[in-house]
Amino acid sequence: MSEESLYQRLGGHDGITALARTVFNNHCKNEVIKNRYAKSDPENVVQKVGEFMCAGFGGSEKYTGEDMLTAHTGMNISDEEFNAVVNDVMSALDTHNVAQKEKDEILVALWSMRPEIVHV
Question: Which annotated residues bind heme (predicted)?
Fold first, then answer.
């Protein structure tokens, strides 16, 4: 018997899109990083984050954004900002009652991307 993908365990496209929206809303309230999102298009951010998560978690969606290194080069993202993003994601997972196993998998994925995102 095969285990469901992370994509399936998070509720597929709809569940992950709802999660992406909560993450974005958390970022917009987070004093450490909210200025980075002040002039962004919320629907575009939610779409791209949702695509990225869906594709990365085992869904059939295509990610249409830039790779992490390209997207974050020149932004001078600090460790503090990266940690704020991780905390916002973990908070969103709590909001959506995501189980610990899935939280752990997502946390590992986030930390694996850190070298492509943090550039000070």
Answer: 72
> Model pTM?
0.93
Total domains, the chain? 1
Closest CA to 55 of 106, 95, 7: 7
Q: Return the CATH number at 71.
A: 1.10.490.10
Which structural domain range is residue 107 located in? 8-117
Contact criterion met (CB below 8 Å) for 71 and 62: no
Question: Which positions make up the binding site?
Answer: 72
Residue positions forming the annotated binding site for heme: 72
What tens digit of pLDDT does each residue of 23-80 get?
Answer: 999 999 999 999 999 999 999 999 999 999 999 999 999 999 999 999 999 999 999 9
